[in-house]
Each structure stands twice: as structure tokens, then as C-alpha cells.
């Protein structure tokens, strides 16, 4: 890679880091991406409002879509790029620079996705397939995430599930109030709340055993009543993160969780509401694409390794695999890089150019 291109990629990463914006609010970030592309490339840029994409179009029969996310993580000090999405986007901008003036024998679409942290952006961007006439027969799709703790620049592969499905379960139990001296005159949801907090993790363990995979229900918070000693509790809330390695296990876990809530409420004469937030499907890799990425590494002498287990965190890249063959991989961010979403994490400057070149190798291989 030419030194000037490396410098442009690194500078872009720093600019994106300084612009850090929350999911669904990435206006300045999107403006910068668009301005960079128009200034440095001849790609056709399509602005969809909340997200955008750029087309390297050769009129070929096959199209490869490469996706990067660009939202930041909320912190007490404001939005910060503690997950490396600034680096992911800089890498995709680097691919745009590397494609300039090059014929690759296929069409390439660079997808700049918003709102990955909430799981909403991937679902929105699936509109791309209908907009561009992309199907399972004529399209292949890839994306990646930086992985701290792994050797810098090493491609990290996994067959099957790369990242788990998850969602936030928001349960509300509704009873009726009464004076604390006369609890028999009201309906208190506290006992049902306590039972559910124990039952849901047990259901997850049973589901995991049946599906032979990792399945979790993690209680992240709960509340019953108020700090008012004269009034018995009449409303309660339980917040649980459901997580599973496979789509089938995740579906069953959600179904059984709904049944448990309905049963607990009915048994105690309670009303109830169940809502879900931050819904992520499992990111499951297409075997043929995984074979092609491995072959590209072998042909180019690129370092790679296979992961033994999927990541427990979630990635909304899983939405895309419902429409076209898709493959998600990791790139080592260095053994000394702090973990994702921690205070001292920072995307390494040298990683974005490496990732841009990986993107190009994989595009050529597909």
C-alpha cells in the first residue's frame, strides 16, 4: 500500500474518532464519510438518510457488499468509539481508495451502516438488497470486527456462529395497591418477580442443553414497588438479557421466556407486559464464503486462525445473512490492546490500513 493511502486512512480514523456519535444520531459522521468519498474517489455515492453506500460498478454478474459500522458507545463523558467502529469505517474508506482506478471483475458496494450498537442499523440497511436488485444468486457479503488480545492483523475465522443472538427482555408485572398493614387486600407482584428471576436462567440452561450450545438469561436489573413503607408493592419490573449461540436455541429461549412470564403472572393474578429491545440475530457464517476467505489467505500468505467458540457479544451483521450469503470475520487488534467497551480501549492506528487490504484481498477472492 502506498504511504499516502495509509496516511489518508489513519487520518480518517482520527477524524471519525473525534466525531463520535450515538446510534441513530450519526449525522456529522455520515457527512464526513460522504465528503471523504466525494473528495477522494469516483465511486457513486447513495445517501439513504440514516445510512449510505458507495458503488464501484463494472456491470458484472456478481456483486460483493462490504459493510462497516460507524456509531459510538455511550459513556458518562459522552459518546466514545470504545468498540472501534471508527476504525472499521476508516478501513472501508481505505478499500474505496484501493479500488480507485482498478478493475476487479465484479461490482463492489461499500455499505456504511449506522446504529449497530442497538441492533437497529443492520435491519434498516437490508433495504439495500431490493434497491440494487441483490439476491442470493448474484451477491456475496462480508464484514469484520477488530478483536483485542489477538495478534495484530491476523484474520480470525469461525464456521457456523461467529457472534451470538441476543435481546433485552423488559418484563412488567401489574398487581393492585393496598395498605402495607392489609396486604391481603391487594395483589403484590414481588413473589412472582423473584420466581422469574430464578426461573429464566434455569430455562436458559435447559435450552442450551437441548441444543448443545451456549444459552444464557442474565438478570441485569429488577424492581418492585417503591420506598414507601405504608404501601405494598403493586408493580414490578424485571430486565433480562437473553442470549444464545444458534438461531434455533434463541427462538426457543424467547418462546419459553414468554410462557414463563405468562405463567407467573396468571398464577398470582397479575397483569403483565413483555417488550424486547436491542434485538440481534445470531451472526452465522456461510460455509462456502468461509472457504473462499481461507483460500485467499493461503494464496496471499496472510496469517489467519480459527476460533474455537463464538463470541458471546452480538453483532447485527446477522440480519444480512437472511438475504444473501454472508461471512463475518475478526481482525486481531494486538495482544496489548485493552478490551472492547473499556475505558482505555483505542483502535490501533496501524490496524485500519491492514484491514483495508484484507477487504481488498477478500473482494478479489469472491
CATH fold category name of the largest domain: Aminopeptidase
Report how far apart the termini are: 21 Å
Number of domains: 2
Strand content: 15-25%
Instruction: Identify the overall geometry.
Output: elongated
Element order: H for helix, E for strand: HHEEEHEHHEEEEHEEHEEHEEH
CATH class of the largest domain: Alpha Beta
Name the helicity range. Answer: 25-40%
Counted beta strands: 14
Instruction: Please tell me the CATH architecture of the largest domain by its name.
Output: 3-Layer(aba) Sandwich
Number of helices: 9
Mean pLDDT: 97
Which structural class should the secondary elements be placed in? alpha/beta
How would you describe this protein?
This protein is an alpha/beta fold. It folds into 2 domains: 3-163 and 282-365, Aminopeptidase; 165-280, Alpha-Beta Plaits (2-Layer Sandwich). It has helices spanning 3-18, 27-40, 85-99, 120-125, 127-131, 190-211, 247-267, 287-300, 351-365; strands at 44-47, 52-56, 63-69, 107-113, 139-147, 155-157, 161-163, 165-174, 215-224, 235-244, 271-280, 283-284, 304-306, 326-332. The strands form 3 sheets. The chain has an 8-stranded mixed sheet. A 4-stranded antiparallel sheet has the order 9-10-8-11, covered by helices on one side. Strands 7-12 form a two-stranded antiparallel sheet. A hairpin with a 4-residue loop joins strand 1 (44-47) and strand 2 (52-56). The longest helix has 22 residues, at 190-211. It is elongated. The chain starts with a helix and ends with a helix. The model has no long low-confidence stretch (mean pLDDT 97).
Amino acid at each position: 500500500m502506498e504511504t499516502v493511502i495509509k496516511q489518508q486512512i489513519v487520518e480518517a480514523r482520527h477524524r471519525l474518532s473525534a466525531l463520535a456519535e450515538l446510534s441513530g444520531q450519526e449525522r456529522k459522521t455520515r457527512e464526513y464519510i460522504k465528503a471523504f468519498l466525494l473528495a477522494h474517489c469516483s465511486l457513486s455515492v447513495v445517501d439513504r438518510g440514516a445510512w449510505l453506500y458507495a458503488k464501484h460498478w463494472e456491470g458484472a454478474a456478481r456483486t460483493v457488499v462490504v459493510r462497516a459500522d460507524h456509531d459510538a458507545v455511550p459513556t458518562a463523558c459522552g459518546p466514545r468509539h470504545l468498540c472501534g467502529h471508527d476504525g472499521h469505517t476508516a478501513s472501508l474508506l481505505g478499500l474505496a481508495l484501493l479500488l480507485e482506478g482498478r478493475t476487479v471483475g465484479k461490482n463492489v458496494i461499500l455499505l456504511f451502516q449506522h446504529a449497530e450498537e442497538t441492533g437497529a442499523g443492520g435491519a434498516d440497511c437490508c433495504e439495500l438488497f431490493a434497491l440494487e436488485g441483490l439476491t442470493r444468486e448474484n451477491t456475496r457479503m462480508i464484514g469484520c470486527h477488530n478483536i483485542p488480545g489477538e495478534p495484530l492483523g491476523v484474520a480470525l475465522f469461525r464456521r457456523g456462529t461467529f457472534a451470538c443472538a441476543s435481546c433485552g427482555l423488559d418484563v412488567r408485572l401489574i398487581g393492585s395497591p393496598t395498605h402495607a398493614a392489609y396486604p391481603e387486600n391487594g395483589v403484590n407482584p414481588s413473589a412472582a418477580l423473584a420466581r422469574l428471576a430464578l426461573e429464566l436462567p434455569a430455562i436458559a440452561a435447559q435450552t442450551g442443553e437441548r441444543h448443545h450450545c451456549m444459552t444464557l438469561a442474565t438478570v441485569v436489573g429488577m424492581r418492585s414497588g417503591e420506598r414507601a413503607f405504608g404501601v405494598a408493592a403493586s408493580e414490578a419490573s424485571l430486565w433480562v438479557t437473553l442470549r444464545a449461540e444458534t438461531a434455533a436455541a434463541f427462538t426457543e429461549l424467547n418462546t419459553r421466556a414468554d410462557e414463563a412470564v405468562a405463567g407467573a403472572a396468571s398464577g398470582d393474578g397479575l397483569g403483565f407486559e413483555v417488550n424486547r429491545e436491542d434485538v440481534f440475530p445470531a451472526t452465522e457464517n456461510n460455509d462456502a464464503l468461509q472457504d473462499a476467505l481461507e483460500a485467499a489467505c493461503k494464496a496471499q500468505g496472510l496469517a489467519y486462525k480459527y476460533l474455537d467458540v463464538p463470541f458471546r457479544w452480538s453483532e447485527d451483521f446477522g440480519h444480512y445473512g437472511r438475504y444473501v450469503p454472508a461471512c463475518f470475520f475478526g481482525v486481531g487488534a494486538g495482544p496489548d490492546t485493552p478490551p472492547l467497551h473499556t475505558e482505555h480501549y483505542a483502535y490501533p492506528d496501524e490496524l485500519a490500513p491492514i484491514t483495508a487490504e484484507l477487504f481488498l484481498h477478500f473482494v478479489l477472492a469472491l
